[in-house]
Design brief:
66% helix; 4 helices; mainly alpha
Length: 79
């Protein structure tokens, strides 16, 4: 199975779920079996591609803060 097939399979798996079901998919994938990580990656890719620049910058800032143990109330400085 190539990457495109994996992406398609993941999208098909969640395509018709409502917001509560999508939340459950995400929350049940976090901190569990590493086999679920590619699915989260595909979902994040979809979110990233449809996000405006300010939202992308905020996501990068949150990620930076998480990776570096920075207090979330402090302004992010990923660059």
């Amino acid at each position: 199975m190539n990457n495109l097939d994996l992406r398609q399979a993941i999208v098909r798996r969640v395509q018709n779920k409502n917001g509560e079901e999508l939340t459950d998919v995400i929350e049940s994938s976090i901190g569990n079996d590493e086999k679920r990580l590619p699915g989260l990656g595909v979902l994040f890719e979809m979110i990233w591609r449809s996000s405006e620049k300010p939202d992308q910058e905020r996501m990068v800032g949150v990620l930076y803060n998480e990776l570096n143990g920075v207090d979330e109330s402090a302004p992010p400085s990923p660059s």
